[in-house]
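It is worth pausing here to work through a concrete case rather than discussing structure prediction in the abstract. The textbook approach is simple: state the sequence, then state the predicted structure, then interpret. We follow exactly that order.
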Amino acid sequence: MRGRNRNKRGFTLIELIIVIAILGILALYALPKYQEIVKEARSAEARAQLSSFRSALGIYYAKNHGVYPSRFAVKRGDIFADGRVPEIEVTNSRGKVVRSAAVKTTRDGDGVVEPNEVNYNGGWVYDDGHKLDPKYSKADVRINYKARDPVTGKHWYEY
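Step two, the predicted structure:
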């Protein structure tokens, strides 16, 4: 009669359960930190996108002898190198993510985006100043979202 081979290598069920429990505890600590890092990254990216948008406006202004683009040129993406309006992704304080590349233009045309001209649709809000000066010598662009940035606590349109 052959005896049992006691030299088999492997893990017992108890050892596997202990390892799984340890990994579960580590995940409990790592997941909230990961979510916080994602929020911070999304906030920084949104502010960077806004900076890029404003830079594109500045370049257009310089190339066109002190004239900002019309609302139609901005909506079509004519001021961007690739011809597309950049998509922006923002998060509210409850963790809801809104993505959009839409450009909302204001009706008053005074060249300044006011808080009452912003909504919760996401994307961008642009005021080309066309009613003050037909040469579009004043313009403003903001993030079109009324919620607060969960990282800084500022309203998205305040940047």
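Step three, interpretation. The mean pLDDT is 88. The beta strands are 88-91, 97-100, 103-105, 124-127, 140-143.
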